[in-house]
Specification:
alpha+beta; 34% helix; single chain
Length: 388
């Protein structure tokens, strides 16, 4: 090859900034240009609305898949002004729609993160052929439209408003995505999960596309993760052996809170699900390890106190207590730390000891108060060990 052919200097480097970078490489921001990435557009916008509800500023969040392929996410909060959001101390709506750094980074325990990297609705705006933001605030209705992330005109007053709230209506850009048809089932599964993990959240999903008429699902679970655990086994149709055992605790040593629920069922299958700040952690981590440590410690102590295990027999370690166990452990941390960039495994070291201690105490108390169910669980675990 000639020197000219292999020459490479600064003139060959292309620097992309802001929303231009998002449109050039959408997969880097929403995971893919397929269905997965399409759903991330919805989650990026839903993040903000859900946080409004969880902070008490809004009563509910409504997501609608409209017949013409447009998606609308709305809340009935006070309405975020297009300028600085002085009442929340956060960025205004224009910044959220145009500035990627306005919400970058993993959220604290008080912030729900549905998006991959904790970004803002700016990603959805950039990857939509059209987005309309509407704010109803202090009796006035404001509207601003965007095309491919660029404002068509400044925010404009369009008349009086009844009530208050913020809504974003967007059309995913068909030139960037392989499909623009959102899956009702996929969105419903994630929103239901979110409602389980945040008791009191009131969220609805409506699909106006079916020829037979709209379908709507409403998600609200006052029992939190207790309801989550009950739901997991109810769907499987498995016979349950114990009540749902659940508790919540705040622990300053891990700078956060934990919510745990578990039960044993008549199945050898183990189902343990873990979450950090409402995000699933498919590879577990210190919170899940703490759960297993606590369960093992409580069961082992109970079995030895009741003579179900002798001093000479090996203990019920964390690898032996999953027989028929269904559990959910959800921690909400001020400063979550993860293994790797995908945030699939929690790495905060203090969390393991804190969760383990709390589970040991609460499960131990339950075992003492429910001796018949407790003995049935331990006996089944020991019987399964003998068969293996």
């Amino acid at each position: 090859m000639s020197d000219e052919a292999i020459k490479y200097d600064a003139s060959h480097i292309q620097v992309l900034t802001g929303l231009e970078a998002v449109r050039k490489r959408p997969g880097m921001y929403v995971g893919s240009t397929g269905e997965r990435g399409l759903h991330q557009l919805v989650f990026e916008v839903a993040d903000r609305a859900v946080d409004e509800a969880l902070s008490g500023r809004a009563g509910r969040v409504d997501v609608t898949l409209m017949a013409d392929g447009v998606v609308r996410v709305a809340d009935n909060g006070p309405g975020i002004p297009f300028g600085a959001a002085e009442d929340t101390g956060g960025p205004g709506l224009e910044a959220l729609l145009t500035d990627l750094s306005a919400g970058a980074g993993p959220g604290s325990r008080r912030v729900v993160t549905l998006s991959l990297f904790g970004l803002t609705p700016a990603v959805t705006n950039a990857l939509s052929s059209r987005l309309t933001a509407e704010v109803r605030r202090e009796g006035i209705r404001w509207v601003q439209e965007y095309a491919c992330g660029v404002a068509v005109a400044p925010p404009a007053v369009t008349g009086p408003a009844t009530g208050s709230g913020t809504s974003m209506t967007f059309r995913p850009d068909a030139t960037l995505f392989e499909t623009t048809e959102c899956s009702f089932a996929v969105l419903a599964e994630r929103f239901e999960e979110l409602a389980f993990l945040n008791r009191g959240l009131d969220l609805s999903l409506t699909d106006e596309r079916p020829p037979g008429g709209p379908q709507t699902a409403r998600f609200r679970f006052p029992g939190g993760v207790r309801d989550f655990v009950a739901s997991i086994r109810a769907r499987a149709g498995t016979v349950v052996q114990t009540d749902v055992i659940g508790f919540e605790r705040e622990d300053p040593r891990m700078a956060g809170t934990m919510e745990v629920a578990l039960r044993w069922c008549g199945s050898r299958e183990e189902q343990v699900r873990s979450f950090v700040n409402s995000m699933a952690t498919p590879y577990g981590g210190t919170h899940e390890a703490g759960l297993r440590d606590g369960v093992a410690a409580a069961l082992d102590a109970y079995a030895r106190a009741r003579g179900l295990l002798t001093a000479a027999e090996p203990g019920l370690g964390a690898d032996r207590v999953g027989e028929g166990l269904t559990a959910v452990v959800s921690v909400k941390l001020d400063r979550p730390e993860f293994v790797g960039a995908t945030r699939g495994e929690l790495d905060n070291a203090p969390v393991r000891a804190c969760v383990g201690e709390a589970v040991r105490e609460h499960l131990g108390a339950w075992l003492e108060q429910n001796p018949e169910q407790a003995e049935a669980v331990v006996t089944e675990i020991l019987r399964a060990d003998a068969l293996d």
